[in-house]
Design a protein that fits this description.
The complex is a heterodimer of chains A (414) and B (343). Chain A is an alpha/beta fold. Chain A contains 17 helices and 11 strands. Chain B is mainly α. In chain B, α11 packs across α12. The chains are: A alpha/beta (414), B mainly alpha (343).
Chain lengths: 414, 343
């Protein structure tokens, strides 16, 4: 037992010495425990934050795609299992609902001089998260294929339909279009995007009552159905992990994908020179003569847990500031991993789609306490319509009924 | 065995059952009767990197007070059980009144999540269970007739589907039936139809899941039957042979009756397992075409950003109820046999 202790202490000292040389983040002491999603941009941030580990600062991290499912339980514990959770528009809501993250105003005042105003996510005047990257879904096209059929780059979804028809008719591809239509959270997001493009409101103003059963909802459904006609019949199993390889294999001409996937499509791995050179990210489409892009804007940022000591909170804040520093962006290969909000970021081709979508005035994904429930109702009820089993009106009525049931259980509706 | 000795022997497992089965069950039952407090919402001004806008948020302090008063939430009785996500009494009644024919009523019923899931769950259970028993017995008889030398490797290979983790097994099959996968492409070629997709068609997805279920569970019944075959008395078999019984007659009149208790055992296990079908639906990304009761529970807890504990608890209890109803005939039979033996 004693020997074990000695060895553990020895190991801790070694790690401390080895990493202390990396960075001095100005942390006296404390624990930093990070919970984050699992994709390259967040690995870059968390790895940079990890350099703050020293003999007095312990650091641990958990990158998991299941982060949304464990964050509430993990941070309800006192002391919290994690000192920071890296979140996005939607995943911050359950933490806010439960009062599990602390306001950061004092920490920002003390240490946050380097942060830009638009990085501060404020709820009711209190800073609750620090954003560091932006994301959005937008169209990516194969310029060479469009040239082949003699069409311009589409600007509206009506153009996309016409182009898809032309590509199919010319016999270039059988299923030229794809979007992220897996019958889970992904499909719900496509409805949200398309509905925003139609200028729809999700709720009756100021209430939690749903308001999607209207003409805009019907138009949204019909456009989604028209689009998936040009998609592979397996479209209900399509998420980023499925669509990206199909794109790289050259079997798609147009796709609606996350901006954060563009790096993968444009790098020199997994695809041919012909496909990569033709790949061109463009902005999000507008639809039905509207001017708002049919997409929603997303941010990723870090929060600090409520149920931890002030010392750990400060240590975590400083470590994460180091994680999202300009040095991180300037490190080899990090620039193109995301659309960073930091000054050092130089927008490359991979960022063009997100930049165009934001510039065209896309709406942010709603940060409402009950939006997640409506999102769940979207993907539960949409497959019936997309497979041609029921009418648009019936589907919209089902969506509202499913949402109302869930909202009553959560106490948002009586 | 003395009662006292018996008690000490069973104590550890009894304690484990109380702690890990009975108590969670009580907790789930209680949770299913409650819904959350009315949320106190306040108007707030939110700023993000993109813009500032007015929005609503949950009032933390007011909620904390409510939670302090009644930690479990509001009592809702059986309200969760009868709402649209579960038994949907109101919607079913409406559909009954509104529908002109039984077919129409059925179609409207299938629009409700619980009944949709129940339909697949029952179909899956009803088809997979008999197939697993018949197929398992057939494999066991086949393997038993093999020469000693190849028996070992054959048994090992036959067990493979059960050894492979269900999720991995279904994922492998999922990729194989992809339009570009080996099975999917082969089917397209055989039927000369390049639009044929196992993942896109409703009925083909059901068939695929059921075939997968049989493939996965057959080894279990095989190994049980194979063990049983080793105990079939050789004298009776030889006597039947001398009487001129064919191989089929020997199986039908000697082996099968001898195996009846095993058939009951496997039926019990399979009914319980199949009624809780879950992994293949996730592995095959089939939730758009087939959902099961277990999948609904999973979706309530892991589908979105917000978890519905009460709803998941209610579905869990309804699943348990379903299993009890399914097992009733088999349990009654076992009980009667037990009674006979005592007399």
């Amino acid at each position: 037992m004693n020997m074990m202790k000695t060895m553990a202490a020895g190991a801790a000292v070694t790690i401390g010495v080895a990493t202390a040389a990396h960075a001095d983040c100005g942390i006296a002491s404390g624990d930093v425990r990070v919970l984050a999603n699992d994709f390259p941009a967040l690995h870059a941030v968390v790895s940079k934050a990890e350099e703050c580990a020293s003999s007095t600062v312990t650091f641990s991290k958990n990158h998991t795609t299941e982060h949304r499912d464990i964050q509430v339980a993990a941070m309800t514990a006192n002391p919290s299992e994690y000192t920071t959770a890296i979140v996005a528009n939607s995943s911050v809501v359950p933490l806010l609902n439960g009062g599990l993250i602390r306001p950061l105003d004092d920490l920002v005042a003390k240490h946050g001089q380097g942060l830009k105003k638009n990085q501060l996510i404020t709820i009711d005047g209190k800073i609750m998260a620090i954003a560091f990257m932006a994301n959005a879904q937008h169209l990516v096209v194969r310029k060479d294929i469009l040239d082949e059929v003699g069409l311009d780059i589409p600007e509206t979804y009506e153009d996309v339909l016409a182009a898809a028809e032309a590509i199919e008719a010319a016999g270039v591809m059988e299923h030229p279009f794809a979007m992220l239509t897996m019958s889970d959270w992904n499909l719900g997001e496509e409805f949200v995007n398309m509905y925003l493009g139609h200028g729809g409101e999700f709720f009756k103003p100021g209430t939690a009552e749903p308001a999607v059963n209207n003409e805009k909802g019907v138009a949204t459904l019909n456009m989604l159905k028209a689009l998936v006609e040009y998609s592979n019949p397996d479209f209900l199993t399509y998420n980023t992990g499925v669509v990206a390889p199909i794109w790289e294999s050259g079997n798609l001409a147009m796709a609606q994908m996350w901006g954060s996937s563009m790096g993968q499509l444009l790098d020199d791995e997994g695809s041919t020179e012909e496909v990569v050179s033709g790949t061109l990210p463009v902005g999000a489409m507008t639809v039905a003569g509207g001017t708002t892009p049919a997409s929603s804007l997303w941010w990723d940022g870090f929060t600090i847990a409520a149920n931890i000591s002030d010392e750990d909170a400060e240590a975590t804040f400083l470590a994460m500031l180091n994680g999202i520093s300009n040095e991180m962006v300037m490190e080899e290969g990090n620039n193109d991993k995301a659309v960073w909000l930091m000054d050092a970021y130089k927008p490359g081709m991979a960022a063009a789609g997100i930049a165009a979508t934001a510039a065209a005035g896309a709406e942010p994904y709603p940060m409402l306490p009950y939006m997640g429930l409506l999102h769940g109702a979207f993907f539960a009820e949409l497959p019936d319509f997309l497979q041609g089993n029921e009418s648009a009106e019936q589907t919209l009525a089902d969506i509202e009924a499913a949402y109302i049931t869930a909202a009553k259980e959560k106490g948002f509706l009586q | 065995m003395k009662h006292k000795t018996f008690f000490w022997f069973i104590l550890p497992s009894l304690a484990a059952m109380l702690l890990f089965i009975a108590m969670p069950l009580v907790s789930v039952t209680i949770q299913s009767l409650f819904v959350e407090h009315d949320q106190v919402l306040v108007e707030v001004e939110n700023c993000t990197p993109f813009k500032c806008e007015s929005s609503v948020a949950v009032d933390q302090e007011a909620t904390a007070v409510l939670r302090e008063e009644r930690p479990l939430g509001q009592f809702n009785g059986l309200g969760t059980y009868t709402n649209r996500s579960h038994l949907a009494f109101a919607e079913v009644g409406e559909a009954w009144n509104a529908s002109g024919s039984l077919y129409d009523f059925g179609a409207q019923l299938m629009n409700l999540p619980f009944y949709k899931a129940l339909a697949f769950t029952i179909t899956y259970t009803a088809v997979v269970t008999p197939f697993v028993i018949v197929l398992g017995l057939a494999i066991a008889l086949g393997v038993n007739a093999l020469p000693q030398l190849v028996k070992g490797p054959t048994i090992f290979c036959s067990l493979l589907p059960m050894i492979v983790t269900p999720l991995i097994g279904s994922l492998i099959l999922f990729w194989m039936v992809d339009a570009d996968g080996i099975l999917g492409a082969a089917l397209q070629r055989i039927f000369d139809d390049d639009q044929l997709s196992l993942k896109a068609s409703h009925s083909l997805t059901w068939i695929m899941l059921i075939v997968y279920g049989i493939w996965h569970s057959a080894p279990f019944s095989f190994i049980v039957f194979y063990a049983g075959l080793q105990t079939v008395p050789q004298e009776t078999l030889e006597a039947a042979q001398i009487d001129g019984a064919t191989r089929w007659q020997r199986v039908r009149y000697v082996v099968v009756p001898y195996m009846t208790p095993l058939v009951v055992f496997i039926t019990l296990m399979q009914l319980m397992d199949n009624f809780r079908v879950f992994e293949p639906i996730v592995g095959f990304s089939a939730s758009a075409k087939a959902t099961s009761l277990s999948w609904i529970i999973f979706n309530d807890l892991r589908g979105g950003d917000i978890q519905l504990f009460g709803s998941a608890a209610a579905t869990s209890l309804l699943t348990i109820l379903g299993v009890v109803v399914l097992l009733m005939p088999v349990l009654i039979r076992t009980w009667q046999e037990f009674g006979r033996k005592v007399v």
